[in-house]
Amino acid sequence: MEAEKYVNSIVKKIKCTNARKKEIKTQLLSDIAMRQESGESVEEIMESMGAAEEIAEAFEQNLSKADKKAYKRRRILMTIGSIVLVLFLLCRYVWWLIPKAADIGGDTRFSQEKVTIEVEKVIELLDENDYESLQEIAAEEIRAMLNQETIGGVKDVISTDWGERQSIGNVYIGGVKQKGKLLIVTQVDAVYENASVVYTISFDENMKLAGLYMR
Hints:
Blueprint: H1 2-11, H2 18-37, H3 42-49, H4 52-61, H5 65-97, E1 100-102, H6 112-127, H7 131-136, H8 148-158, E2 165-168, E3 172-178, E4 181-192, E5 196-203, E6 209-214
Antiparallel strand pairs: 1-3, 2-4, 3-4, 4-5, 5-6
Helix pairs in contact: 1-2, 1-4, 5-8
């Protein structure tokens, strides 16, 4: 675990694509494992390798032009995707503010148990980067936004390496109504190895994903 944290701290500082980061991480962990098999302790290995910043800088200097170009292209796409998603979410948030609160306490369709299951399903699909399945459970008007470029860009703004999910908190549920349509709005905290994320996830009356916000 200590070796993996050390490697993660190195990889996070390298300005390259996620695919290249994974390759570097695998390489470093493999090198450390081989040295451990030769009798060195993790502490001795980390001390001899040096500071994470220095190692990351060395890797960056050895990146190919193609790797550097791919990284710059991805950063541009992430920025564009983030702007588009922020505008979309801002519109959704403004729309959410206008309606009056609706009492959904007596509606069995939106029980705590049922809504929690749907919320956890959305988070699992996001964790797995399964955007095709996410689009299948979403309302038609937001499906085009649920893709790797857009969601992946927002994820990277929070952290480029979330790590494995550790826990999900209580799901808080509320209802709003506008123009005769009901929207189920939920909020939940999720803790990952390297990040804490607050999800605001909303559904329409048919429990189709209708809105998504991460911070």
